[in-house]
Amino acid sequence: MIVRRHNRVIVQGMTGRQGRFWTERMIDCGTTVVAGVSPGKGGQEACGRPVYDSAADAQAAVGFDTSVLFVPPAGAMAASLDAIAAGTRLLVMLTEHVPVQDVMEIMAAAKAAGCRVVGPNTAGLVTPGEGFVGIMPGFNDNIFRPGDIGVVSRSGSLGTLISLNLVAAGHGQSAFIGIGGDPIIGTSFADALSAFEADPGTRAVIMVGEIGGALEEAAAEVAASMSKPVLAFIAGRSAPAGKRMGHAGAIVAGNAGSYDGKRQALEAAGVSVLDLPSDVGPVLQARLDDLPSGD
Amino acid sequence: MNFEEYAAKPVLAAAGIPVPESRLVTDADGAAEAARALGPAVVKAQVPIGGRGKAGGIRLVDNPVDAADAAKDILDLEIGGWPVERLLVEQQCRLQAEYYAAILNDAASKGPLLLFSTMGGVDIEEVAVRDASLIRRTAIPIETGLTEAAAAAAIAGFDLACDSDALVALLVNLYQAYRANDAELLEINPLGVTDDGRIIALDCKFILDDSSLPRRADLAAQGVPERQSALEERGKAVGLRFIELDGSVGILANGAGLTMTTMDAVTHYGGRPANFLEIGGDAYTKAIPALEIVLDHPGVKSLLVNFCGAFARTDVMTEGVVKALQAVKPDVPVFFSIHGTGEAEAIKMVREDLGLEPCATMDEAVQLAVEAAR
After folding, report:
1. Among residues A6, A97, A171, A247, which one is catalytic?
2. Do A276 and B363 touch (CB under 8 A)?
3. What pTM was estimated for this model as a whole?
4. Cβ neighbours of residue B23 under 8 Å, at least 6 residues apart?
5. Is A247 a residue of the active site?
6. A134 in a domain, yes or no?
7. Residues spanned by the domain of A149
8. Same domain, yes or no, for A280 and A209?
């Protein structure tokens, strides 16, 4: 789930307004975008890349291992199944409001094919110095710089703020992984923590969560056995119970998904939980200073 | 979207799951007439919330006079903030057992999950707290659906008062109803076994997946719209997600995560947020109505604009807000924090067009807004 320059990326829905806008930026940033897919527009060209009717056609013509979806909710399942059947190894679903039972069908097909899904409702993936896939400002060096801190976030806007504070404090990212704000998503915090633990370019991890669901609690179990320091910020401490706070997944029902429950689980696992996004610099420095030296 | 019992049970009936004969009424006369037709009955408040029994919203009646009395009492109730306006009058059943069955969207298995227990008729969360092993959890592969074999395995080992084949068939039908209606949750509690061994759904909770509303418009017309304040209604009418809170710092921020965090920071520095309002994506084009709604909240004493541009460009959002501020001319102080994509142009706009200086950090803007709202 860490995107690299050698990954060959197709953009499903490239010919739309947002598809074009972000494809241009991905290409400028160094991402290897090889083709677009828009049913009925095969044979055209967009952003200097060939456009195919289907992912299967794109696979036969140019070959790819990664697909990013700029497709509205009603078409998300067909586009996803097309990409999975065509053999994509990574599927990045930006689309918000995909019917949840469609998402489950996509997850089942992806699992059977050995394909990793990121999202839905994610802002995407960034690897500073290599490229990005999605709708994050991978090109803005106040927010993303090559470094050794892994960042994983449910929210795009809040992930951006944490990244901004991280860069302002003199650090950079090994990778940014946006997992998405939906209740059922392909890649969890626990998956991302495991990937960062295994990544030799990552020295510490910042997890940006929010109220609702149990992903942060599940991640705490992984964090407890990690060799690398983990920090977390959890949004929604002041949110009233029973209201969905923008993201479909961000709702506190009874005691499940509460801020206090998540914070306790993370702190018990040795995770440093930040009170404010601006605490990231000093708390990270303290955790890095505590690491045994590499000599 | 939640459905009241009277609107949820037809979803079961359409899938071949037996439900008691019933009438929906709105007054005591209607309740009496229904009881006359049905015989001994249950009068039930129709509200989209649990705990009706404890609140006095469910009464057993033997005759039309009792039914009218019960109806009068229940129609005077307010349950969890919902005034009771409708009653379901349902034929009584003689039961020998009460079970629990539900199918829901499960984040952990990323698929449908069947829950079954012979401890029905009570709050299932209390059963789970007492002894989780009393509830059998069966993950369902969505590519095959709930097969008869899987349903049989899900109820194996329970001491059942009903025919197990009939229960298997009912669970398979429940799964069909869950799939056919884009349910987030479809729950029968209690699932009754009558004295003569028939299985019947005595209550039903149905939650429709909100992301499926566009393709379930007919069904959604039977659901209960979310309860909203007048300001929240105005937000919804222009396509903005606005949640009214009881504080004094008005908030405009982009993205759900950043907006929640802005609320948290206001609270951290001793202030109280007046609202949640997400203005990312295309919402910046609605800056004028957004600003009007935030400022029409009577408690607002300061306004905090917090943009952190990723997908959303801060220059585009700021242009919308600057124009809106010029049009609306609020009489409360406004504080800006602008970072990320397009920040240089955005900051220039605020300086030149509004004569204001955006704060260097989000924390500074939050502290000033909290101070000004005191």
Report:
1. A247
2. yes
3. 0.93
4. B30, B33, B34, B37, B38, B88, B89
5. yes
6. no
7. 140-289
8. yes
Query: Are A167 and A206 part of one and the same domain?
Result: yes
ipTM for the whole complex: 0.91
Q: Dump pLDDT digits (tens) for B187-214.
A: 999 999 999 999 999 999 999 999 999 9
pLDDT digit string, tens, across residues A237-295: 998 877 766 665 665 555 568 999 999 999 999 999 999 999 999 999 999 999 987 54
Q: What value does the mean pLDDT take over residues A137-160?
A: 94
- Chain A residues with CB under 8 Å of B264 CB are 235-238, 276
Domains of chain B, each with CATH number or no CATH: 21-91 (3.30.1490.20), 95-220 (3.30.470.20), 230-373 (3.40.50.261)
Cα–Cα distance, B76 to B99 (Å, whole number):
31
What is the per-residue pLDDT across B232-286, written as a single tens digit (0 to 9) for each?
999 888 888 899 999 999 999 988 889 999 999 999 999 999 999 887 666 667 8
Number of inter-chain CB pairs under 8 A, A vs B:
174
Contacts of B308 in chain A (CB under 8 A): 157-158, 160-161, 164
Distance from the B271 Cα atom to the nearest Cα atom in chain A, whole angstroms: 11
Taking CA atoms, B306 is separated from B35, B278, B321, in Å, by 59, 11, 11
The whole-angstrom distance between B69's CA and the closest CA on chain A is 34
Query: Which residues of chain A lie closer than 8 angstroms to B181, CB-CB?
Result: none
* In a domain? residue A294: no
Q: Where are the beta strands (DSSP E) in chain A?
A: 9-12, 33-37, 45-46, 49-52, 66-69, 90-93, 116-118, 124-127, 131-134, 146-153, 173-178, 204-210, 230-235, 272-273
Determine the Cα–Cα distance for residues A126 and A29; give it in Å rounded to an integer: 10
Find chain A residues with C-beta within 8 A of B111's C-beta: 104, 107-108
Does the beta carbon of A289 lie under 8 angstroms from any beta carbon of chain B? no
CB interface of A with B, residues 30-59, below 8 Å = none
Q: Are residues A84 and A150 in the same domain?
A: no
A112 touches chain B (CB under 8 A): yes
Across the interface, do B264 and A235 touch by the CB < 8 Å criterion? yes
Encode pLDDT of A62-120 as tens digits.
999 999 999 999 999 999 999 999 999 999 999 999 999 999 999 999 999 999 999 99
Q: Which residue of B has its CA nearest to A256?
A: B125
- pLDDT at position A197: 98
Task: Quickly count: other Cβ atoms within 10 Å of residue B163's Cβ.
Answer: 13
